[in-house]
Amino acid sequence: MPWTSSGSLTSDRIPARQPTTALVKQQAKGKSQPGPPKSKVVSALETRLHNVEYASGKEKDPKGGCFCLAREHGLSTYVPLCYGCGLVLCNLNLPHYACPHCGESFLDNTRRSALVAQILEELRGQGAKEEEERNRAIEEARKAEGAFPLLPSASGTQGARRLIPELYNEEEITVSSYTNTPISSRPPSPAPEEPRRFPPPPREISYVKQPPDPEHPWKNIQFPDLQYIPPPKDLNTHSRQQRERDGGH
């Protein structure tokens, strides 16, 4: 209640205490504490989830998709087979794009909800896996610090305090440690290279259009420069056959 001069009580004449700027900043800082950074896997899954939820599914991949038939890349875990033409799809063919061959959409009402549920389950599993890895790294870092008892920091900052008894008197000293989590000294990994995409097969069937040579009907007209190279002779077989002809000596 704001202060007014017409109040009947003595407390009404005391102006309201406004919070200081430092206190407001501290409270705002405490509310917006950032969590651990997202991994590349989690960011990719979140992007894929957003695309599956809001894309129309009628657009083709601007990169052309991939026609390796899962022989070069892994089989797609979302849409392994086109529902329209039966094309085998590898994991480079993202589910929010249409089939690179016939243009079949994979995002009707039933398929879209199934894909969303699948990606959400992958996100939960990846988050639990990364949380377990973080906890394991923190535990290993604590074990590497030594056998001294770890107490939570009183200031609320990241780190821990260790109480070490003095050797020559009964007092105790406090040593602050800020190495809870290991810091990697490795240089940042380079950006992954764009995977090789296989183009679609040619629309025209390749065949030899000229008539065969009557004198050489078995000649390979498509590759006329081919030469037959006989396999190397096996010296052991030749020696055994020679001994058999000589009467087994």
Can you offer a commentary on this structure?
A hairpin with a 6-residue loop joins strand 2 and strand 3. 30% of the residues lie in helices and 6% in strands. Helix 2 runs antiparallel to helix 3. The protein has a 3-stranded antiparallel sheet with strand order 1-2-3, with no helix packed on it. It is mostly helical and 249 residues long. The longest helix is centred in the middle third of the chain and has 37 residues.
Task: Compile the SSE list and pairings.
Layout: H1 21-31, H2 40-54, H3 109-145, E1 150-152, E2 160-165, E3 172-177, H4 235-245
Antiparallel strand pairs: 1-2, 2-3
Write out key terms for the chains shown.
4 helices; mainly alpha; 6% strand; 249 residues; three-stranded antiparallel beta sheet
Largest sheet: 3 strands, antiparallel
Strand order of the largest sheet: 1-2-3
Overall pLDDT score: 77
Q: How many helix segments?
A: 4
Uncertain segments:
154-169
Quick take:
With 249 residues, the protein is mainly alpha-helical. It has helices at 21-31, 40-54, 109-145, 235-245; strands at residues 150-152, 160-165, 172-177. The longest helix is centred in the middle third of the chain and has 37 residues, at 109-145.
